[in-house]
Amino acid sequence: MNELFTLPFVTGLALAVLLPLVGLWLRLRDEWLAALAVAHLAGAGSVIALVLSLPALVGAVGLAIAGMLGRHLPASGHSAYAWLILAGWAVVLLVAANSPLGETLARQLIDGQLYFTGPVELVAAVVLAAFVLGLRGRIDRHELTMRLLPATSVAERAHRRRTGMLIDALIAAALAAGTLSVGLMATFALVFLPAWAGFHVAGHWRRAVAWTAGLGVAGYLIAFAAALVLDQPFAPVLVAVLLALATSTRLLAHRAC
User: Fold this and answer.
1) Residue 98, phi then psi, degrees to nearest 5
2) CA separation (Å) from 123 to 8, 11, 128, 136, 195?
3) Mean pLDDT computed over 174-199
4) Using H for helix, E for strand and C for coil, what is the string for 118-158?
């Protein structure tokens, strides 16, 4: 592989492992819309950070975590995610319209400029992927327990709440890293589509993890090669490939039943 594409390839591969796992946990919670909401907030945070002469990643992660932790507020609900999507979208476009740097970054967020990622995005993606893989067993147990077993004491509810907030912060950071590297919709596609198919075809949790991660990585490898060979923008190719893989997987599973 040309050295020019080695760094973006590794960055995207780390995200292709990381984001589908995030999608699996969000689907288990039935909160997959949070991925799109937090991605929009990350985009808004990045353009605001640039206007303030701060690193884009700092703004993206900070606002993404703030939005994700907002789910723990008493009055929050699924409707809050729609509110966050609209707020993030409005901020991105308004800042872009009034700042040359913001306009450039906003276009990158929409188009998904993986080929222009640098060492900062690479380190963020690899570190987050390694962290999530190292903690995956613990996160899996927490999410499954939250879904299947009610808390039996005040202390247990408080412990679950603290653990859930830490996991949410990690999820938000992953979504922010994805948004800055592959764009809004490609990040959402990596979160939503592999988990959408994996949940449908798997008979148990471990198989769902394997299917979801496998579809994410396979879709990424196919899309990266196809975009280079066909000289096409990466993000829409990735979304199209993931749509095809996820839909065909579900159709084949349905015929086999």
Assistant:
1) -120, 15
2) 11, 8, 8, 19, 25
3) 92
4) CHHHHHHHHHHHHHHHHHHHHHHHHHHHHHHCCCCCHHHHH
User: What pLDDT, on the 0 to 100 scale, is given for residue 117?
Assistant: 85
Q: How far apart are CA 141 and CA 144, in angstroms?
A: 5
| 187 within 8 A of 237, measured Cβ to Cβ | no
Q: Which residues of 43-58 are buried (b: 16+ CB within 10 A; e: fewer)?
A: bbbbbbbbeeeeebbe
Q: What is the DSSP letter of 76?
A: -
What is the per-residue burial (b if ≥16 Cβ within 10 Å, else e) of 225-241?
eebbeeeeebbbbbbeb
CB-CB contact of 177 with 11 (8 Å): no
pTM of the model: 0.89
The one-character DSSP state at 235 is H
Q: Which residue in 33, 20, 28 sits closest to 71, CA to CA? A: 33
The widest CA-to-CA distance across the chain, in whole angstroms, is 58
> pLDDT grade, residue 251 (50/70/90)?
confident
Cβ neighbours around 243 below 10 Å, total:
13
Measured N-to-C along each axis, helices 3-29 and 205-230 cross at an angle, to the nearest 10 degrees, of 150
Give the pLDDT score at 255. 73
Instruction: Answer whether residue 105 shows pLDDT above 70.
Output: no
Instruction: Give dist(CA 174, CA 42) in Å, integer.
Output: 10
Cα distances from 130 to residues 40, 124, 141, 170, in angstroms, run: 24, 10, 18, 12
Check if the beta carbon of residue 15 is closer than 8 Å to that of residue 112: no
